[in-house]
Amino acid sequence: MDKGTIIRTIALLVALINQILVLFDKSPLPIDSVFVEQFFSVLFTVIASLIAWFKNNYVTKKGQRQKEALLEKGLTRPKK
After folding, report:
1. pLDDT digits (tens, 9 = 90+) for 49-79
2. How far apart are CA 14 and CA 9, in angstroms?
3. Which of 1, 19, 36, 49 could cysteine-pair with 5, CB 3.0–4.6 Å?
């Protein structure tokens, strides 16, 4: 098995154990639900922000070369 398969298998097992504990009304993590909601809200916002920033901005060297190629071929307009 490759590393990705092992990691996905472990994540699946943890999720299944968590579901079984919830089914039997056992709290797998003694954390307040408000904290969990806020944490995932912040996590989602950070991930979405990074993806939006990185996706359509030429941040990497490869991206900068792609932008130059697009400008040279007239496929995009230069920013003012």
Report:
1. 887 777 666 777 888 898 889 889 888 777 6
2. 9
3. 1
Q: Domains of the chain: which residue ranges? A: 1-30
Q: Hey, what are 49's tokens?
A: 């922000």
Neighbours of 60 (CB within 10 A): 10
The answer to whether the CB of 8 falls within 8 A of the CB of 1 is: no
Among all chains, which residue has been given the structure tokens 């056992």?
A: 26
* DSSP H/E element including 71: helix 61-72
Cα(54)–Cα(58) distance, rounded to whole angstroms? 7
Token code pair at residue 6: 């092992």
